[in-house]
Amino acid sequence: MRILTSLSKRNLLFLLFILNVCAVKAQNVSYYALTKTSRNGAISTNVSGGQFITFMGDICYESNKKGIGVGHGTLKLNTSYSNSDYKVYMGSSYWGQNATFKFKTDMTVLNVVLENGDVYVYKKQTAPPSATTCSLIRGKSSSSGSSSYTSSSSPTYQNNNPTYNPSGGNNNSGNSGGYSNTNRNNNSKQRRDCSLCHGKGRIVRNSSVPTYGNDSRVRCNECGGYFMRSSGHSHVTCTQCHGRGYLEY
Alpha carbon of 15 to those of 18, 23, 26, 49: distances in Å? Predict the structure, then answer.
């Protein structure tokens, strides 16, 4: 009986070891360095810092270099707004609960798009030896309910005006993915269709809904598509253009 018990314990420990190895292998941790920002229409390349992003299946989150989350929550791949050029993740991050992480399909460039239209451009790089976790980490909520923020390497900003491309690529006159901020009349703003909602003013949001075994296929009255009830498919105001369908520069 003792021999069987000993074997059972060994088998259990071996199984736990295998599961732990599989979980580690399923994680993919990458470091993205901040290279450019667009805040309130002001472009800046005078920035620093970077975030570790861990990918697990269709989920990503900000983590330390070992893949352990830093407490910002997770973002889920939104297939409705992903295409051959971009993979779009939506959810909770350092920047709040409604951030959008827009990766190039080769995952070399990350655009963090905020609700107010600000964009933070990150590029995938080898992490500096001194970097062990994200440079931007959200602090604990204050007594008034507002969040405080801490940063070991906070980005800095200045009102210089380089040509800006949200996709992180090279700028040229045929590149529809960016805009030029040089030689622009401040009194004459340019409009461009929102790249997230494609001018519709609304975006798809999926959230898991418990159906307790009674899942069924339903039709969305807004887009006309058919979805499983458990997917929580819905449409909400676009977090990038705030329902306008366009952005002004």
Answer: 5, 12, 16, 39
Helix (H) or strand (E) holding 242: none
Beta strands in 129-211 (DSSP E): 136-141, 147-151, 191-193, 202-205
**For position 5, what pLDDT does the model report?**
55
- 31, two tokens: 């470091």
Measured CA to CA, the distance from residue 146 to residue 140 in angstroms comes to: 9
The mean pLDDT values, 10 residues at a time, for the chain of 249 residues are 55 58 68 93 91 94 94 93 93 91 96 90 95 88 42 38 37 36 51 80 80 80 80 84 79
Of 206, 196, 233, nearest in space to 75 by CA: 206
pLDDT of amino acid 160 = 34
H/E element holding 165?
none
Residue 225 to residue 49: CA distance in whole angstroms: 42
**CA angle (57 as vertex; 241, 27 as ends), nearest 5:** 115
pLDDT for 86? 94
Residue 87 parent element (H or E): strand 86-93
Backbone CA torsion sign across 143, 147, 151, 155: negative
Q: C-alpha dihedral over 170, 133, 128, 155, to 10 degrees?
A: 50
Contact 76, 92 (CB under 8 A): no
Residue 219 is predicted with a pLDDT of 85
